[in-house]
Amino acid sequence: MLHQKYYKEHGLAISGLVMHHKIDPLEYNREVDDALPLDGLITPDPDLRQLLEDIDTSKVKLWLFTNAHITHGQRVVRLLEIEDLFEGITFCDYRKMPFICKPHREMFDKAEAEAGVVSAQDCYFVDDSHLNCRHAQVRGWTTAHLLEPDLPEPEEKAAQYQIRNLETLRSIFPQFFKTTKTVDVDQ
Questions:
Q1: Closest C-alpha among 107, 116, 47 to residue 81
Q2: Which residues pair with 162 in a beta bridge?
Q3: How far is the C-alpha of 131 from the C-alpha of 57, rounded, in Å?
Q4: What is the DSSP string of 36-62?
Q5: Is residue 88 within 8 Å of 95, Cβ to Cβ?
Q6: Would you tell me how many other CB atoms lie within 10 Å of the CB of residue 177?
Q7: Could you list the pLDDT tens digit for every one of the 187 residues in the chain?
Q8: Residue 131: what are its φ and ψ, rounded to 5°?
């Protein structure tokens, strides 16, 4: 499947479409990502909101890091009703050519610069992509790979931590939470 091929080769399917088929990324974003009928599919998640609200932002900065274009990224967090909990967002800018995305080093550089990171060791990263997690881990970020609940564990771990539920972050990083709850850790 072309989508999977470009995702694996470029980190993002649209990147391969732009490079090999001269697709206009902004038109693609308008016609595909922004046109997806997400209202009703993505709904407010009170548990996710509570988890994020429990993070002590005097100790850690909440920052979104997405391969989506800004409009899609903002739309998703708005639908989840968590947009007010983040200090900023690093996104794949479809307006700039060639655009960069995770897992490329330049995208991680961009995220660090935009978030005001001084040291890679200060970065804590959660992602559902094995490839993105592996690159973040190599970079020196403390990384948790969020696994799909129904999928088997990968043969090779991508990160120091493998989790199946975001609540597990409370057990892995208790120092960043205002309150603690006991959660099984999938490592």
A1: 47
A2: 145
A3: 28
A4: S--BTTB---HHHHHHHHTB-TTT---
A5: no
A6: 17
A7: 777 788 777 777 788 888 888 888 888 878 888 888 899 899 999 999 999 999 999 999 999 999 999 999 999 999 999 999 999 999 999 999 888 899 999 999 999 999 999 999 999 999 999 999 999 999 999 999 999 988 899 999 999 999 999 999 999 999 999 986 655 554 4
A8: -65, -45
* C-alpha span between 136 and 121 (Å, rounded): 11
Residue-by-residue DSSP string for 75-130? HHHHHTT-GGG-SEEE---TTSSS---TTSHHHHHHHHHHHT-S-GGG-EEEES-H
**CA separation for the pair 157, 182 (Å, rounded):** 24
**Who contacts 124 (Cβ-Cβ below 8 Å, separation ≥6)?**
60, 141, 142, 143, 144, 173, 176
Q: Give the residues across from 39 on adjacent strands.
A: 42
Rounded to two decimals, the pTM is 0.88
Grouping H, G, I as helix, E, B as strand and the rest as coil, residue 141 is coil
Q: Which of 148, 68, 157 is nearest to 107 (CA)?
A: 68
Tokens of 184: 């099984």
CA neighbours closer than 13 Å in the CB half-sphere of residue 184 = 2
